[in-house]
Amino acid sequence: MSMEINVLFHGKLPTRAALGRAMKELGFPFAIAERAGSLEDQRGFMPMRLKRREQTGIEFDVFDGRANVLQIADSDRVADFDRSANFRWGGDEAEMLAGLCAAAALARLVDGVVVDVDANVLSPDDAVAMAEQHLKAFASPSKTRLRTRPADIRRYLAPLLEQRSDLALIGRLLIIHPVNHLLRGILIGATSDRYTFRVRCCIKPLYDAPEPSDTAMTSGRTGESGNRIFNRY
């Protein structure tokens, strides 16, 4: 089941780099993997890094028009906003935190409001406080977390790799051979449970210009149909 948080605003979106700087200034431990370009051009999965190490990210899109805004919140609570930036995630806690932090930072940049998963309308300051509260709970030492590691994934997939000579595992990316003009495969992402991993479709045209960010994180657009949780048991 996916969840969504919305930023209602008026005007243009900032660049990815500006959003990354805003999160850093707020003390949020997330960085946008691909910082070039404007958020106006961002659609689908936006890769991010937690503490610049763990790969994560959120689905991002934008709705335009007053009618779309009024489907999210009623008119007496959202002033004259006519655009909605939407952050969506599945069941992974790091993705949820990425969405909360990015939404709070964006609301400050565009002087908008945040509509949380319970349809509460929050000021930018209230959204920042909510993100900080969730970050504090996430960092609590009383809660044990075991992330899915690449070594775990390789061990779980060893029988499949022995049977299928057309498959190759590089880090978290399972590639299908032969590789001609398209790199095809799946990205096996981490979750907070070492025995559970998230799978995303990956299709990378090799004739595109190389991107500075990690190939596995920026390859292809994903939607709900390409995002599933698999447990090895």
Secondary structure elements and pairings:
Blueprint (H helix, E strand, L loop, with lengths): L2 E7 L6 H10 L4 E3 L11 E7 L3 E11 L1 H7 L10 E7 L3 H18 L2 E3 L5 E2 L1 H15 L11 H14 L3 E4 L2 E4 L5 E9 L5 E10 L9 H4 L8 E5 L2
Antiparallel strand pairs: 1-5, 1-6, 2-3, 3-4, 4-5, 6-7, 8-9, 9-10, 10-11, 11-12
Helix pairs in contact: 1-3, 3-4
Relevant terms:
single chain, 31% strand, 12 strands, alpha+beta, 5-stranded antiparallel β-sheet, 233 residues, 2 domains
Structure report:
- Helices cover 29% and strands 31% of the residues.
- The chain is elongated, with a radius of gyration of 19 Å.
- It is α+β, with helices and mostly antiparallel strands.
- The C terminus is likely disordered.
- Strand 3 and strand 4 form a beta hairpin.
- It contains six helices and twelve strands.
- It has a seven-stranded antiparallel beta sheet with strand order 2-3-4-5-1-6-7, with helices on both faces. A five-stranded antiparallel beta sheet has the order 8-9-10-11-12.
- The longest helix is centred in the middle third of the chain and has 18 residues.
